[in-house]
Automatic annotation (TrEMBL):
Name under which the protein is recorded: Phenylalanine--tRNA ligase alpha subunit
Location(s), subcellular: Cytoplasm
Any Pfam family matching the protein: tRNA-synt_2d
The keyword Protein biosynthesis is annotated on this UniProt entry: yes
Main location group: cytoplasm
Example GO molecular function: catalytic activity, acting on a protein
Keywords of this entry: Aminoacyl-tRNA synthetase, ATP-binding, Cytoplasm, Ligase, Magnesium, Metal-binding, Nucleotide-binding, Protein biosynthesis
Cofactor(s) the record lists: Mg(2+)
Cofactor note: Binds 2 magnesium ions per tetramer.
Catalytic reactions of this protein: tRNA(Phe) + L-phenylalanine + ATP = L-phenylalanyl-tRNA(Phe) + AMP + diphosphate + H(+)
Domain Aminoacyl-transfer RNA synthetases class-II family profile residues, every copy: 111-320
Length: 344
């Protein structure tokens, strides 16, 4: 039996030398060391041996098993090392190669215009104020010199939630809230950006929801000339040094006197074209001196301070700045339209 075990050792080690892959190695392990393997088959005959021979044959059997297992373990480590090296070689990443370019978003043109307007006025010493979009009738109308049943309310067809609560039709309520929060202190110098809501039919120039930015300045000796100078500075920073403005008399319940502001047409430079209907001017915003009644409602004495206010539609500014002919382009999420602004 000892000779059979030694012969088995020799045979197994020779076969193991020729193993080419892990599968062959596993097959040989089963063949020689498995429960039904050659070594087990030989050792089953130990029952016929004498008591003196069994320990000797048992020791030889263990030596044979250890020899075969040692070679198998070495082969396994070799195969694992080769597999690891192959994977490292095949999966190596060259960090010097250019990566896959991922599509990147861009700031929406309306947000871009809002940010630009905010930067301009912050540079002029203004602060940015915000307020709720769901507003009370008091702040949206009454505190702005528009008492109930005032005919000027018809100028802004509103979304009412209850008799006293509505979606704000302008950002002017933020001006009133700010004045009340200041508790009579001055100067007040703010702009109020935000969404507003009116019952308009959607078309090329109107929407039931749009963005507005209003401004308010309150303090001693604030004059109409200050308002005009501020708006001229804004227009030239927004549209270029060549831009000019003109003020036309108008009516707003919360300002007196009031004016509409036109800017020279960006398409023709004021010469007259189809866009400006041959006038050379485009309407851009409304403004005026704050009505004394509005100052009183905000907690100020109109005999001590004066103020001016202005309001503009962000979409209107964006249409003029980028030469866009339909406000609905801003809301349809057309990537062909929006991707243009990623390069600006």
């Amino acid at each position: 039996m000892k000779e059979r075990l030694e012969a088995l050792r020799t045979e197994a080690l020779q076969e193991l030398q020729g193993v080419a892959n892990p599968q062959q190695l596993n097959d040989l392990r089963v063949k020689y060391l498995g429960k039904k393997g050659a070594l087990t088959e030989i050792l089953r005959g130990m029952g016929s041996l004498s008591a003196e021979e069994r320990p000797i044959i048992g020791q030889v059997g263990n030596d044979v098993r250890a020899s075969i297992e040692s070679v198998i373990n070495e082969k396994q480590e070799t195969f694992l090392r080769e597999e690891t090296e192959t994977r490292l070689r095949e999966e190596t990443i060259d960090v010097t190669l250019p990566g896959n370019e991922l599509p990147t978003g861009a700031v929406h043109p309306l947000n871009k215009v809002v940010q630009e307007i905010e930067d301009i006025f912050v540079g002029l010493g203004y602060t940015v104020a915000e307020g709720p979009e769901v507003e009370t009738d008091y702040y949206n109308f009454e505190a702005l010199n528009l008492p109930k049943n005032h005919p000027a309310r018809d100028m802004q067809d509103s979304f009412y939630i209850t008799d006293e609560i509505l979606m704000r039709t302008q950002t002017s309520p933020v001006q009133v809230r700010t004045m009340k929060a200041m508790n009579g202190k001055f100067p007040v110098k703010i702009i109020c950006p935000g969404k507003v809501y009116r019952r308009d039919d959607d078309d090329a120039t109107h929407s039931f929801q749009f963005n507005q930015i209003e401004g308010l300045v309150v303090g001693p000796n604030i004059r109409m000339s200050d308002l005009k100078g501020t708006l001229l500075q804004f227009v030239q920073l927004m549209f270029g040094k060549q831009a000019q403005i003109r003020l036309r008399p108008s009516f707003f319940p919360f300002t007196e006197p009031s004016a509409e502001v036109d800017v020279t047409c960006s398409q023709c430079g004021g010469q007259g074209c189809r866009m400006c209907k041959q006038t050379g001017w485009l309407e851009i915003l409304g403004c005026g001196m704050v009505h004394p009644r509005v100052l009183e409602m905000g907690g100020y004495d109109p005999n001590e301070v004066t103020g001016f206010a202005f309001g503009m539609g962000v979409e209107r500014i964006a249409l003029l700045k980028y030469g866009i002919d339909d406000i609905r382009h801003f809301y349809t999420n057309d990537q062909r339209f929006l991707n243009q602004f990623g390069r600006m």
